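Please review the protein record below. Let me know how this chain folds according to its tokens.
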Amino acid sequence: MRKGVLVTGGSRGIGSGIARCMAQDGYDVAFTYRGAHKEAQALCRELEGYGARAFCRQANLEKVEDCRETVAWAAQALGQLDAAVCNAGVTLTYPFQDFPLEQMQTLMDLNLRGYLLTAQAAAKVMISAGRPGAIVMITSVRATRAFPEDAVYGGIKAALCRAAEGMALDLARYGIRVNTVAPGYIQTRDTPEVQAFSDGFGARIPLGRAGRPEDIGQAVRFLCSSQAAYITGATLRVDGGLILPGMPEVPFGPAWGNPDYPPDREILDYRFPGE
């Protein structure tokens, strides 16, 4: 019997990699998208090719009601909710002294409150159904390693890792496990500019390449599976060894502290994509 999983921000990037891996592992998949309607429809058809039932819903998880309504929709569409993956988010980085209030609020509403409310609603569904389950939140290596301009983004990711530990304690009695996956650099787009950056940066990662969405999907698949039945409150870092040596984030150009850093924001916006 197939299980059911909700993946937020599943239409592209890391989220689509998670959805594919879960469908291939025997899950029916419900996922949200913000505005990428064509990509969402295409992914539904792809997941159905793996034998899964697939459902998509447009949602803005900055809104409290969308978080709760999304979980209720997923539970009804799937018939049961065995796993929930909180992935929808954005990557916004600025020098802390110049961080715009509006962008700060977006990060707190979507990347923090959106995750917590979605996880809370999913836990309530699982508890009400009397079913064990798994909740996975996608964080970042920035939760444990500071990079320039990530005080707010990285701080929120660190908060999620700590929150997951407390959630794991509260939900253990119901057989619900809560873990986080911390990606490093994941190439989510294939434009020539991004590919060139990924090739250069990936060569300096210990495992010799940039990450792929499916690398995160396989980690999520494992944490939701019976093979991880005794794992809860943990963070699984999936970064190819990126932060082990403490290497600079930029493969070429000025060093940290140089007034010209970063050299090209348009390219560096793809450093650690969220959704």
